[in-house]
Specification:
With about 325 residues, the protein is of the alpha+beta class. The protein has helices at about 10-20, 85-90, 105-120, 135-160, 180-185, 190-200, 205-225, 230-245, 285-295; strands spanning about 5-10, 25-30, 30-40, 45-50, 65-75, 80, 95-105, 250-255, 260-265, 305-310, 315. Strand 10 (about 305-310) and strand 11 form a beta hairpin.
Length: about 325
């Protein structure tokens, strides 16, 4: 079933038809019929809405098809429309509805995730299991601890997204099953509670795995933050400087093997985490000088960069290294 979107009637005659009407409802524009709506009872409080697009002469024939366009909840006077019908009914000079809510699938998913997270309460001790036993989950955890956690910590570090370390439920309805919608419409609280309990029951080890991955990610992120002498902090400072100025080309000054060189380079190639910077993105003249000074296959890293300028402005300058001063025999 297509996803549905909660809507509100913007015309009194349309709302009266939803509440009381039984004959088809026709929308005219001048002498032209735009669409005809009809309804079929699904249950005591649910009616399915269908539309018919007439021919050019305003007539319908046995070739005309009924197109499902939504549901009207007669008990709660709630209107739900498919996306294509919503687009049609909000367009033109005489719109029938206004969009007022999110998709029903999104609303259901959000409420179930909230219910699951409240039940878990960010505490792994509230899970029915305390150990990952499946071989695939165990391998997934091992790979993440060894490789994935550092990669994600680096991405978050450069994006400025500190991990919150909290459990997050991932229930998602990609489509809206008809039975699920009808059950939700009749008893929202009961449907959400039942689905949340089932989701927890079927994903115990998956949830525990998330807690364990969170542990690994937080440890890696804290290591990055605390190691202020790491070149990664220089890479982030360079990235932030490039982002702030919006330059496409910048002048880069490096010091390498006792030599200093300034050249122009594609600014975008200086952003992010890189063990070394690609010299193919240095301007042609600068690349020739670089190869003459350091060798054809040489590269440079963030530790070599002393200054970056854009126009007449210095946008990045490496900090002076901290000098450790000895105390000369003092006890």
């Amino acid at each position: 079933m297509k996803d549905l979107f909660q809507s509100t009637a913007s015309r009194e005659d349309f709302q009266r038809w939803l509440d009381l009407g039984h004959a088809p409802f026709t929308i005219w524009q001048g002498e032209k019929v735009l669409v005809t709506l009809t309804r079929l009872e699904k249950g005591p409080s649910a009616e399915y809405l269908y539309r018919i697009s007439p021919a050019q002469d305003n007539t319908i024939s046995w070739d005309s098809s009924l197109l499902f366009c939504g549901v009207y909840d007669t008990e709660h006077r709630a209107l739900y429309l498919t996306k294509d019908s919503l687009n049609i009914f909000t367009a033109g000079k005489f719109p029938l509805v206004t969009e007022t809510g999110p998709s029903v699938a999104g609303e259901i998913s959000g409420r179930i995730n909230q219910c699951v997270e409240e039940a878990i309460a960010n505490d792994r001790n509230h899970l029915p299991v305390q150990e990952v036993t499946g071989w695939q989950a165990a391998r997934d955890l091992k790979d993440y601890q060894e490789y994935g956690a550092r990669e994600e910590a680096l991405r978050r570090f450069f994006d400025g997204r500190e991990p919150d370390g909290r459990f997050h439920s991932g229930y998602t309805l990609d489509e809206l099953p008809e039975a699920a919608f009808i059950a939700y419409m009749r008893d929202p609280e009961g449907f959400v509670q039942t689905e949340a309990e089932m989701y927890i029951k079927n994903n115990q080890e998956k949830f525990l795995l998330q807690f364990q991955k969170n542990d690994a990610l937080l440890a890696e992120y804290q290591t990055l933050i605390q190691d202020v002498g790491s070149p990664i902090h220089q890479m982030k400072a360079i990235t932030e400087a490039i982002d702030a100025c919006g330059a496409k080309m910048v002048s880069v000054t490096i010091q390498k093997t006792g030599e200093e060189l300034t050249f122009k380079m594609d600014a975008g190639q200086l952003k992010g985490y890189r063990t070394t910077y690609n010299t193919t993105h240095i301007s042609a003249a600068g690349r020739r000088e670089f190869e003459q000074m350091f060798g054809r296959y040489a590269s440079f890293s963030a530790e070599d960069v002393t200054k970056i300028t854009y126009g007449r402005n210095t946008i990045y300058e490496a900090a002076e290294p901290v000098q450790n001063i000895g105390m000369g025999g003092m006890m």
